[in-house]
Design a protein that fits this description.
6-stranded antiparallel sheet; Tumour Suppressor Smad4; mainly beta; 2 domains; 22 strands; SMAD_FHA_dom_sf; 263 residues; Cell_Proc_Reg/RNA_Proc
């Protein structure tokens, strides 16, 4: 995985908030994940690459806790040894390195894409989420989320809620939720056995559970490595409201629900 500030890089550091780009090369370094572990190679960058304050000139094996410096940016390698191993780079100068706020998925970041804004009517039983200023500057506006839900709902009738993925490898995918009983739960995680599968290294095997009981929706963390966040606040469990923004590791999504069970 190539790291740098060029749009072709699998890990495009210019897409990460607060990154200092002035001393980063367009193609700066490469991370390689093999059966024996993670390695880092400098790609003839102008200002070099260091591991634990030592400049490297060849492929270098990385260990848990190693500090990488790229330009004026420092990162720490965090590696889980559990079966559902999650590998992340944590930005330094953070009080809590375990926080998903400091996590960078080593699978990289996809470049931003142009969004053509167009009004789409939601299907019967749905209503627009409140235009919260917290999300106003984002690509996934309430209108964009409404468009994705509308398109998906036309193919599958009777859904009572939906998760709209807004980042990561399956960005723009919509999971429609159609309970078959008054009390039901869905597993969300990286495992193929999850009803809602998120193929992302920052997401645990079974990261959390989405729950509905008598029309009330909630979400519960499953002791995940990178945590569960709802509207930017870390949660162990909470009730979900229409339009809530959820983050699992580095993957973000919106929760939408139908206006009423009888709609």
């Amino acid at each position: 995985m190539v790291i740098g500030r060029d749009q072709s890089c699998e890990i495009n550091l210019t897409l990460i908030p607060d990154i200092k780009t002035s001393h980063l090369s367009r193609i700066h370094a490469r991370l390689t994940l093999t059966d024996s572990g993670l390695t880092l190679t400098d790609l003839d960058s102008t200002n070099g690459t260091t591991v634990n304050k030592v400049q490297i000139d060849k492929e270098t094996a990385l260990q848990h806790g190693d500090v990488i410096t790229l330009g004026f940016n420092e990162f720490c390698i965090l590696k889980e040894d559990r079966e559902d191993a999650t590998i992340v780079m944590g930005k330094l100068n953070m009080k809590d390195w375990n926080s998903a706020d400091s996590a960078v998925d080593i699978q990289g970041f996809s470049g931003s894409q142009t969004v053509i804004r167009q009004k789409f009517e939601l299907p019967h039983g749905w209503e627009k989420a409140e235009d919260d200023t917290l999300f106003r500057a984002e690509k996934y506006t309430p209108a964009k989320v409404a468009e994705l839900v509308s398109n998906a709902a036309q193919k599958q009738q009777g859904a009572r809620a939906a998760l709209v993925i807004s980042s990561g490898l399956i960005e723009s995918e919509v999971f429609l939720l159609k309970p078959v009983s008054t009390s039901q739960h869905w597993k969300i995680g990286r495992s193929p056995n999850c009803q809602i599968r998120i193929p992302d290294v920052s997401v645990s095997t079974i990261h959390c559970y989405l729950i509905v009981k008598n029309g009330t929706w909630g979400i519960k963390d499953n002791d995940s490595r990178n945590g569960l966040y709802v509207n930017l606040k870390r949660q162990t469990k909470c009730i979900l409201q229409d339009g809530d923004k959820i983050r699992l590791g580095s993957v973000e999504m919106f929760f939408r629900k139908a206006k009423s069970q009888g709609a």
